[in-house]
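Final report, results section. Input specification for complex C-07:
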Amino acid sequence: DVQLVQSGAEVRQPGESLKISCKGSAYRFTTYWIGWVRQMPGKGLEWMGIIYPSDSDTRYSPSFQGQVTISADKSISTAYLQWSSLKASDTAMYYCARHATGTTGGLDSWGEGTLVTVSS
Amino acid sequence: SYELTQPPSVSVSPGQTARITCSGDALPKQYAYWYQQKPGQAPLLVISKDSKRPSGIPERFSGSSSGTTVTLTITGVQSEDEADYYCQSADSSGTYPVVFGGGTKLTVL
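Structure output:
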């Protein structure tokens, strides 16, 4: 079965950097877009951006452009989401998910989520 | 920015039919997808391309489209269907390849 396994929960202070990961298995990682989705406590789903691991083509939501960096290492079937300077408002659950087809297709497989807590 | 509009909540009794709507200007041109999210869990795709049910999703889940509105229908609602439901689509220009609706809390009375 297709699996996306995310890195564990993180606690950081404001201003610190962070990189979380999402490792795909049981499918050809390079041929499906991977997206990142934020869910703040008690709130809905927000699309952050997507990456095509084959050539690292990346698209960002205007709301997150410049706030985060999405990358991928196809040699180890892993996508990343990183921050250079965290804010308290970055506290949220972050999910990676695979697009079934293209960039606008449904997200047919999801990671379990990585909880990021930013607090002084 | 492009928005998809869902009702915040829907309530039904067990065995009844629940209908959750999602409205957006680009829905006549873009497919819609529906996700179920239970507390503490990742979202689960329950309807793809407006009306297709992924493998393993019960037949009581169905989707339909009419103009600028898509609808998720759950026929014969069960207590286990209580969850948040999100629609997802794209805008027509490609600026926003993924847009989520605000979510609908389905309560089974």
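Chain B has a mean pLDDT of 96. The two ends of chain B are 36 Å apart (CA to CA). This concludes the modelling results for the funded period.
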